[in-house]
């Protein structure tokens, strides 16, 4: 069946054999769950953008990714799809708590990313939402801490996504980001995306990237 076949393809890719992906250019050529494929099709996503084509095969087979492609190039789907597929394959349920944390520099962007997660995950059963900062920093810290204590199961493999990573890793976010990083297991998959590969993005030790795939795509304007 489709899911077993998808798992075979992903296992091959994980072993370094990408032949089954060929030169996939459409989402429906990737080994995705039918639920995800249906949602993508209904949302009107057919052809992958360049960063999606380059990053998705790696992200789907569990590699860490450090991807750079300019604003508007479709980086959101390059991490939302692997997040949903991984939790689905792991049969992640409500009782398993937080399986993925996506960090975003602004509330607006957080809301937009959540809308994409909702759209792509609409046939799946995952709970979630954008945690929007409306109160002071102290209350937000409390909230982040209580969320982490509540839901982070040590040793459990999770996925960490940093969108606009250069901004997230900037000193303005340092204390908040360090709190989050200290609470989540180091044994995880990390997907890090930004418009540019800045010096702070290369601060790999801080986010514990392991042997990441460096992907840089700059389409002609
Ligand atoms: P980035 O994060 O790289 O700035 P986004 O992920 O916000 O880019 O995507 C920019 C726009 O492109 C969004 O409106 C999104 O819906 C659209 N988009 C992304 N991927 C595709 C695709 N494969 N096909 C069509 N539209 C896409
Ligand atoms: Mg973006």
UniProtKB/TrEMBL annotation:
An example Gene Ontology molecular-function term: RNA helicase activity
Domain Helicase ATP-binding: 56-215
Domain of life: Eukaryota
Domain DEAD-box RNA helicase Q: 25-53
Short sequence motif Q motif: positions: 25-53
Keyword vocabulary terms for this entry: ATP-binding, Helicase, Hydrolase, Nucleotide-binding, RNA-binding
Assigned protein family: Belongs to the DEAD box helicase family.
The record's note on its domains: The Q motif is unique to and characteristic of the DEAD box family of RNA helicases and controls ATP binding and hydrolysis.
Function: RNA helicase.
Protein name: ATP-dependent RNA helicase
Organism: Triticum turgidum subsp. durum (Durum wheat)
């Amino acid at each position: 069946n489709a899911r077993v076949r998808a798992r075979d393809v992903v296992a091959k890719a994980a072993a370094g054999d990408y032949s089954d992906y060929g030169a996939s250019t459409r989402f429906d050529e990737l080994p995705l769950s039918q639920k995800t494929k249906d949602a993508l099709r209904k949302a009107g996503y057919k052809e992958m953008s360049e960063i999606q084509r380059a990053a998705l095969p790696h992200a789907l087979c569990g590699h860490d990714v450090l991807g750079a492609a300019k604003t508007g190039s479709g980086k959101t789907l390059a991490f939302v799809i692997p997040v949903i597929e991984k939790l689905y394959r792991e049969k992640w349920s409500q009782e398993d708590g937080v399986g993925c944390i996506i960090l975003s520099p602004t509330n607006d962007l957080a809301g937009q990313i959540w809308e994409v997660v909702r759209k792509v995950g609409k046939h799946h059963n995952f709970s979630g939402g954008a945690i929007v900062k409306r109160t002071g920093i102290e209350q937000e810290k409390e909230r982040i801490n209580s969320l982490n204590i509540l839901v982070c199961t040590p040793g459990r493999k999770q996925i960490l996504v940093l969108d606009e990573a250069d901004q997230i890793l900037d000193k303005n976010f340092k204390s908040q980001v360090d709190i989050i990083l200290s609470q989540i297991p180091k044994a995880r998959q990390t997907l890090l995306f930004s418009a540019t590969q800045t010096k702070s993005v290369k601060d790999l030790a801080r986010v514990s990237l392991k042997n990441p795939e460096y992907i840089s795509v700059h389409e002609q304007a």
